[in-house]
């Protein structure tokens, strides 16, 4: 995505609890002379701020023009990940565009390929098996979180449907009572005018 040099951009990620999140990014600055983005932006870094669903700041750190940040979500919900360049130029001069290459992996698990190659085949299979087991646990946590969200949504829908049903009953009773009142009023009016 593109952003201004002093601009802040935020991304909302819905993350289950106890999940590792790994983010890789790279910043490129627009070059006026070549009319292209430079491969790297020397001297330019990024403030990365991660906020929990409760509003607490989980991570706030300055990184370089490219880097990796990691955090673990302790509660499930929408985490807000914000990026802002560390540009010290005034807002009037800081009109340069930045291109941010961002890759966020939720539930990422590290596999050290060099360590796997150094060990014999039995250990390699064992390490890969442990990695698969960890991924299964992550998928299970993700499913539990989705099940919990679906349950909340279902309860909200049922409460809304119940409220709509009662509103329809109240509306019907009001219409019937207004109709009976109108009939009685018209009958009394016709009797008083001796039209009936």
Give a verbal description of the structure.
The protein starts with a strand and ends with a helix. It folds into two domains: 109 residues, Sandwich (Jelly Rolls), CATH 2.60.120.680; 52 residues. With 196 residues, the chain is of the alpha+beta class. The longest helix is centred in the C-terminal third of the chain and has 72 residues. Strand 5 and strand 6 form a beta hairpin. About 3% of the residues have low confidence. 40% of the residues lie in helices and 34% in strands. Strands 1, 3, 4, 7 and 9 form a five-stranded antiparallel sheet that branches. A four-stranded antiparallel sheet has the order 2-8-5-6, with no helix packed on it.
SSE topology:
Blueprint: E1 2-4, E2 8-15, E3 19-31, E4 36-37, E5 46-51, E6 57-63, E7 66-73, E8 77-85, E9 97-106, H1 113-118, H2 121-192
Antiparallel strand pairs: 1-9, 2-8, 3-4, 3-7, 3-9, 5-6, 5-8
Family: Belongs to the EMP24/GP25L family.
Protein name: TMD11 protein
Subcellular location: Endoplasmic reticulum membrane; Membrane
């Amino acid at each position: 995505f593109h952003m201004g040099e002093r601009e802040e951009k935020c991304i909302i990620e819905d993350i289950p609890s106890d999940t590792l999140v790994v983010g890789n990014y790279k910043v490129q600055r627009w070059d006026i002379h070549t009319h292209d983005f430079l491969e790297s932006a020397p001297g330019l870094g990024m403030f990365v701020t991660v906020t929990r669903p409760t509003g607490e700041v989980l991570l706030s750190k300055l990184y370089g023009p490219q880097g990796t940040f990691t955090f673990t979500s302790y509660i499930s919900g929408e985490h807000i990940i914000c990026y802002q360049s560390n540009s010290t130029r005034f807002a009037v001069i800081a009109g340069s565009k930045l291109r941010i290459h961002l890759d966020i992996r939720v539930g990422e698990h590290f596999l050290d390929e060099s360590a796997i190659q150094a060990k014999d085949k039995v250990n390699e299979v064992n390490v890969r098996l442990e990695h698969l087991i960890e991924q299964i646990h992550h998928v299970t946590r993700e499913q539990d979180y989705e099940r919990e969200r679906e349950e909340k949504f279902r309860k909200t829908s049922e409460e809304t449907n119940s409220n709509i049903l009662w509103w329809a009953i109240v509306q019907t009773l009001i219409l019937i009572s207004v109709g009976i009142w109108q009939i009685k009023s018209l009958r009394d009016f016709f009797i008083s005018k001796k039209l009936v």
